[in-house]
Target: Lipoprotein
Amino acid sequence: MKTSWRSASLVASAAAVLVLTTACGQESGTPPASQNVGATAPAGGYGSSGLGATTAGTGTGTGADAGAAAGEQNAGAQSASAGKLSVSANTELGQVLTDSAGRTLYRFDQDTAEPPKTNCEGDCATAWPPVPADDATAGEGIDESMLGEVTRPDGTKQLTVGGWPAYRYAKDVNPGDTKGQGVGGTWYALAPDGKKASASGSAEDLPGLSTRNDPKLGEIVVDKNGHTVYRFMKDSQWPMKTACTGECLEKWPVIAPVDAKDTKGIDLQGSTPNRGYVVFDRPDGIKQQTIDCIPIYTFAGDKKPGDTNGQGVGGTWFAIRSDGKPVGAPGE
Model:
C-alpha cells in the first residue's frame, strides 16, 4: 500500500501550558466526601488508557470492561484486515469511513496526525483494535493520498487516514454500528478525509476552548469537540479544591490542560489579573484546566456538539461563560 500522509514532515509546535496553581490558593488536601453528581446523569468517564465508557444510549461500563467483554465476543472480526475502504452515509454523523465489512473506523483525540503517532496500547487497544495497514485500499469517494501507515510500539503497521491512526470499536458488532462515537469525549468516527465525521460535513477541529451562542443559554464555553463545558458549584475557587472525585468523574470528565494560545474568546485574566487561567493539580493526580481558578468539566450525557444535557443537573452543575461564571445558577 502506498504510504503517505498530509504534511508528515511538519513538527507541531506547542507552547507550554500556563501553570500557576499557587495563584489560586490551591490546596492538595482530601476533597469533601459529599458529592452531588446528579442522579439522572448517565455513566461515562475514562479508563486507565484514556478510553471512556459509553454514554447513555450506547451501553455502560468502563472502557477496559467494554474491551474485555466485547473483545471476547468479536475478537476475530475486529482483528481482520481492512480491505477496500468505503464511505457510509449516517443520518447523525454524515459521511463515515468503514472497512470492507462495513465496520465503522474511529480516531482518538490523544493520538497525533502530524506526525502520525498512536497512544492507544494495552487495554485501550483491546477495546479499540487498531486497523491493520497491510491491505487497506481506497474505495469510491476516498482519496488514496489520505491513506498511510504508522508503526506501533509493538512493530505492527496501523492504517492512518489523513495522518490519524484508525481503529475499530470492540462493541460495534454489526456493520454500520457507531457505538464508539463520542466515547469518553475522545473517540470519534472518521470522515473520509481523516477529520471527525459530522452531519454538516467533516468537522474542522475547534480551538481547545472557545465560545458559542446557545439559543437558550446564550454565550457558553465549549471544548475542542464542541461539547459544552460545565462547572460544579460544590467546587471551591478560593482556595481551589474539587468535590468531584471517583464515580463523579465518570459522569463529569475533567477538561485536560489547554494551552492559552489554543483558546478563542476565553477570559484568560480572571478576577485576579494574569492569574485566572491556570492548571489545577488535583489530589487524585489528574491535571485539570480552570477558568478564573474554577475547575471545568464536560458531561458524559452530552452525546454530540450543542447538547446541554448537563445544565442544572442536581442543582449543582451549570454551563459556564467565558469568565467562568455559571449560567442560570441560583443567585447568579
